Amino acid sequence: MSTRTDKRESPADQATSASDPKRPKLSSLATQTPPTPQPNQTIWWNETTALPPPPATSLPAVDVIIPAHNCESTITDALSSTYYQSYPGSITIMAYNDCSTDETSSKINSFLSSHPNTSVRKTKLIDPTTPAPGGAGFARNSAAREGSSPILVMLDSDDVMMKTRVENQVSVLTQMEESKAKKTIVGCNFYREPENSTQHYTTWANTLTPERIYLEQFRELTLLQPTWCMFRSRFEELNGYTTKSLSLPTETEAELKLAEDLRFWHAHLNSPPSFLVTTPTKEPLLMYRHLEGMSQSSRTSPKLLMQLRLKSFETRILSKKWKNGFVVWGAGRDGKNFVKAIDPEHRKNIRLMVDVDHKKINAKFYFNRDLNVKIPIAHFSALQKKKSSVDSDKNENDYENLPVVVCVAMYRTDGKLEENVATIERTEGDDLWHFF
Question: Could you tell me if 216 and 21 are in contact, meaning their C-beta atoms sit under 8 angstroms apart?
Answer without folding.
Answer: no
